[in-house]
Design a protein that fits this description.
54% of the residues lie in helices and 35% in strands. By secondary structure, it is of the alpha+beta class. It has one domain. It has a two-stranded antiparallel sheet. A hairpin with a 2-residue loop joins strand 1 and strand 2. Helix 1 runs antiparallel to helix 2. Keywords: Membrane, Transmembrane, Transmembrane helix. This is DUF3185 domain-containing protein.
Length: 72
């Protein structure tokens, strides 16, 4: 497969996934105390919403790259 087609398919899949899930989450671990053998830390989970307009733009751009890559 050509590079543009692969990138286009990846963008389309990312657009569909963000449209279905509404965004993505990630977990960050932060150390509060680091005193020798004693370590105290906590995890915080953040959710980043992705709007449907951004998802639509990803899908359309991916489709455009697939069409351009297939014509070359």
């Amino acid at each position: 497969m050509k590079a543009l087609v692969v990138v286009g398919v990846v963008l389309m899949l990312a657009g569909v996934a963000s449209l279905v899930t509404g965004g993505f989450s990630f977990t960050h671990q932060k150390k509060d105390v680091d005193a020798g053998p004693i370590q105290i830390s906590h995890e915080s989970t953040k959710h980043v919403p992705v709007g449907p307009i951004v998802s639509g733009v990803l899908i359309v751009c991916g489709l455009g790259l697939v069409v351009v890559g297939a014509k070359k």
